[in-house]
User: Fold this.
Amino acid sequence: MHFGDYCKSKAGTVLLNAAALLVLSVFLYLVNNSGTTIFLIDAVWGLVLFLFLCAEYFSRKKYFSEIMTVLGGLPQRYLIAEVMKPGYRLEDKLYWEILRKSNKSVIEEIHKLECSQKEYKEYIESWIHEVKTPITAIRLICGNHKEEFTKNILFELDGIENEVEKVLYYVRMEQVYQDYLIHPVHLREVVLSAIRAEKRHFIQCRMQIDLDMPELSVPTDEKWAEFIIKQIFSNSMKYRRETGARIKIYTENREKQKSLVIEDNGCGISEEEIGRIFEKGFTGKNGRLKNNNATGIGLYICRRLCEKLRMGIFCESEAGSYTRIILTFPDTDYNRF
Assistant:
């Protein structure tokens, strides 16, 4: 609260007092008061008005500073009316009452939205578990009828299951803490499990895998880490080169962290787009030209999950040459059994 702004807000009061003082001075002059008397009355009036405005300014400044301090410390700022003091002035009390009623309405609406969102998420999770039943049934049928066309069915079924799994992780993303456990995990086993889950796609895409990983334990949750790695594999297969497609998987020891590197020799990412690949819905030039069905959601989910698991995810790429996704894990005592 600046003094200049306060003076502007009190311009009406100052002008009214100046007009009243002018009228009083004229009246005193007409009834034969001396100039000295009139000057002293004007000076006292002006001094009292100035002191009053200064006192009110500092009082109001202190009041609003306290409110701003309280507001800055609130995690939910819309609750300010519940903790602020209403003030001693009538208009302050009226504004506080208006704000309190308004905030109460906002809180009620937020509660309704949260309930609605919770019901929606619960329905989606229920639907996902229900849809897994026919997927499993189709997989069993294909397993009992090993013919050439069933391989294509299983390939497409893997794609459906991957999309269903992506929806499930997206829904659970905000409540990841309810479904994960950070503990020492053999990273090589997690990578191998992800490769086995995607092996049909690797074969269909004629993509070669170079795995160069020693036994290494990192602090993470194997289920969530495997999902992240599978999404990276999926992107590598979508944007692979026509012949000689390859994925190289290896680890690096960096300062205070361990890194898993997944590098492909696909179409790569242009320099102006590489900073946006983890944004929600971003597909880029490759998504528009090479994969019209790209949604731009996979890497976004990966980034959000990595934030929840305190992992890092970075990308290095060169258009037409390679793409390198780097997952980093904190180097803690968890790394040693």
Notes: The CA atoms of residues 120 and 202 lie 35 Å apart.
